[in-house]
Amino acid sequence: MRSFKAYFKKEIMESVRTNKYLILFIGIIFWALLDPLMLKLLPIFLKSYLPADLTTLFSTFTRDTAFQTFLKDLFQIGTLFIAFTLMGLISNEVYNKKLVFPYSRGAIPAGIVLAKYIHYAVTVSIFILVAFLTNYFYINQLFTGGVLSIGIVLKSSLLYILYYSIFLSVLLFLSSLFKKSIIAGITAVVIGYTLSIFNQFNTIRAYFPNYLIFKATDIGYIFDNSLIPTIIISFCIIILLVFFSILCMKKIDIA
Amino acid sequence: MIKVINLKKSYGRLEALKSISFEVERGSVFGFIGRNGAGKTTTMNILTGLIKFDEGKIFIKGKDFLKHKQEIIKSIGYLPETPTFYNYMNAYEYLNFIGKIIGYDFKKPRKNAGELLEMVKLAKQGERRIGGYSRGMKQRLALTVAFMNSPEILFLDEPASALDPEGRMEMLELIEGLKDNKITIFLSTHILNDAERVCDKICIIDKGKILLTKKLSQLYETYIQPIFDIEFEEDPGGEINLLKKLNWVGSIKESGQRISLYVKDIDYAKKEILKELSKLNTNVASYKIRKSTLEDIFIGMVSKNEII
After folding, report:
1. The complex's ipTM?
2. Which CATH number goes with the domain that contains B158?
């Protein structure tokens, strides 16, 4: 518990002083602010360049489609921001020998890993929630139509939070596995994107975490029974990967 | 206090430690000396639980290191050769961070950390971020971290390497002071003068093998050179020939009023020398047995190992 407390506080300090909070905030919230504006302004900008029948396509955006566009962009770009900001969670500490003093003074690997995971899971979750609410506010200001409600936005955000909690556990595990953080970052991004392929297969997609992203965009039908295996598997993945990260940290040579 | 039996460690094909064994007594300063890459830091990293070992046994305070690692580590302080910190923290913050890990009872965190920093003359720079510290300042901060919670055993890896001459002297005085407080010190160094000054026992390691482990006093006895340096009040001239005739004298090197007498049997020569010198028709100003320095012994041992 002592290691957990010490590292949790250290992660907060590090995130503030090395601008990790700022980068994550921009990476996640930016799309919540930019997407509705872009969708609203794009038809105006393109009016003189596109034929009239094409510009009508842009004017058909409702609150629902605007929200779905934001979700898609957040998944594509937010994943990159999270992966490349947090790819060195463990590897950087080991590679730069930052753990020599803490380990030699009795720091416990489980405390370190859990502090890092919980800290960033909470951070990313808060930023996602803020991003979703901000996006909802802007969409309501700029668009009309659709069935989008605060309830739908919150449900959708919950699925995104769960997805990124898994993504973080993948990143944490890869970071404890590879010495070079960039390898962990790229591998996590590749895994994150390629697993979306399974959303094409109706029979098996519910067994992959990317189904959470698929369901989050399924406005009006977000929570249904098909999510049960996904949620169970998601929690199992998180627990297993965090456990394996701790195991790796126990076996690793620190100096 | 520390007992190492047949310790082995390899990095791939490279055998870093080839079945080393040694023992460190409680409250002593154990000098672990060797060239770069001899295996000093690897041994220290193993003994502080930072890296694993392949074979062998380690007992610290009579307890099996592998079985009681977490408990043992609480009584250990480690000063690595190149200490690394979180550079965005300042010294106060770093001490508080480590303090939290070891459960250091900071009643008034800032005041207590300040006292620790005062000890290594860093209190004035305590607010500065560690990233801006010089190597010597980092070394002093590292020393504070190693000292936190009064460890029973201190592992010091080249503690004076980054310090200026004044800092080095202070470090040696500090080690001597700790010895008086019955703290066991495992000191790795290649500054042999430092080892000679503070160590009770010397262990020479080369190419992952222990070449010698001996008390410093025994070491001088064992590696004493069979040479008497004698100084006369005036040039002894032909008087020296009397000494040359003695069957226990090997050779004599003359240099004005001084001679170096190489003997065949040092113990016999110790008994006879004064008797024979008194027979000479010239006054002796001084005489002494030439002592080997730790450097002589170290170079001798390592060169022998090179040939093997």
Report:
1. 0.84
2. 3.40.50.300
pLDDT in tens, A212-238: 998 898 887 778 888 899 999 999 999
Locate the domains of chain A by residue range. 2-251
Q: Are residues B134 and B100 in the same domain?
A: yes
pTM for the full predicted model: 0.81
Q: Do A104 and B102 touch (CB under 8 A)?
A: no
B231 and B212 in a common domain:
no
Q: DSSP letter string over chain A?
A: -HHHHHHHHHHHHHHHHTTHHHHHHHHHHHHHHHHHHHHHHHHHHHTTTS-HHHHHHHHT--HHHHHHHHHHHIIIIIHHHHHHHHTTTTHHHHHTTTTHHHHHTT--HHHHHHHHHHHHHHHHHHHHHHHHHHHHHHHHHH---S---HHHHHHHHHHHHHHHHHHHHHHHHHHHH-SSHHHHHHHHHHHHHHGGGGGG-TTTGGGSTTHHHHHHTSTT--SSTTHHHHHHHHHHHHHHHHHHHHHHHHHS---
Q: Which residues of chain B have a CB within 8 Å of the CB of A3?
A: 101
Q: Which of A2, A9, A254 sits opposite B51 (nearest CB)?
A: A254
* Domain range for B280: 225-289
**One domain, residues B72 and B208:** yes
Q: Is residue B86 located within the same domain as residue B61? A: yes
Residue B41 shares a structural domain with residue B82: yes
Q: Is residue B284 part of a domain?
A: yes
pLDDT along chain B (308 residues), means of 10: 93 91 91 89 92 93 90 89 92 91 74 80 87 87 86 89 80 80 87 84 91 84 78 86 86 86 84 88 87 75 67
The answer to whether residue B298 is domain-embedded is no
Residue of A nearest to B143 (CA): A101
- Per-residue pLDDT of A182-194, as tens digits, reads 999 999 999 999 9
Q: Is residue B273 part of a domain?
A: yes
Mutate to test the interface with B, among A9, A95, A99, A104 (most CBs of B within 10 A): A104
Size of interface A-B (CB pairs under 8 A): 84
